[in-house]
Amino acid sequence: MATAATAAAAAASTAASAAAPRLLPLADIAVNLADPMFAGVYRGKRAHDADVAAVVERARRVGVARLVATGTSLADYRAAVALARDLGVHASVGCHPTHCAEPDAHAPGGADAYFADLLRLVRDDRAAARPAVVAIGECGLDYDRTHFCPADLQRRHFARHFDLAHQTGLPMFLHDRNTGPDFVDMVRAHRHLFSTAVVHSFTGPLDEMRVLTDELGLYIGVNGCSIKTDEQIEVVRRIPLDRIMLETDAPWCDIRPTHASFRFLSQHGLPDPLAAAGIESRKKEKFAMGHMVKSRNEPCTMPHVLRAVAAIRGESEEQLALAAFRNTLRVFFPDDPEAAAASQ
Do you know which Gene3D superfamilies this protein is assigned to (predicted)? Predict the structure, then answer.
């Protein structure tokens, strides 16, 4: 028979559970887990111990049930896939447009060997007990940063990613920055080679978003960089609910006080979801394992993205979270039992 103390403890536990906020299902489709910051290195200088496992744990604490690690280069993606397996998350595989000079310089074998290595990375992953790779990318075009890689070389190597998607049957994880008609034209020309895709961290105009969603049947990823300005906010308001995904692009693209979207974080007067989860931050100079690092974005800030985007669109957080989660399952996890339920 339970003692009075046991009964009181059980009652207290039940009351605490009832008081705790219900976690909404979240999926962060873009986290640069292999970035040096998560290893404690900032601008080439070590500031603290690696805390990438703690970063993933914090994300799970706020309801992030799916997380996709992305990167920039072959070395990055090898690290991202290894981290994804170790931490029980997922990854994409590709070559970021700002790193597209790397394939030609790859030794031995140049670009052909580089893309063969990317393909091998996917196929080796599929032989693992728990495959991690769910997409081809991050790939695309970035005309804001042609000082890293000229536009003609970006286009040449972007085209090769469509072949990777065709060979693997994987969806694509796309990057598009200030490319005029070039990005859309290339995607349209190669649309028959891939199943579907998300254009992540979207910052383009309304007409481009409509072409991507309505004509090409693609999805749009939204993070802090997607809602910096009032013009971007108007675009995000109009993304079809069945085509939107959410992300952090951590350690980048946090929502800052200078952004037009910042006002939407507090307009409901609700408690900060990170504070409710007991998540605090410190400057990197005062690093303590288990705490966020100030000015370094993390996937545990997904509730902030959700709150801002839901307020911008005039939707409840629950409605947006469920829709974005279903979209993510449908694209990246089509064989997951939850994806089948999400499609109904």
Answer: Metal-dependent hydrolases (3.20.20.140)
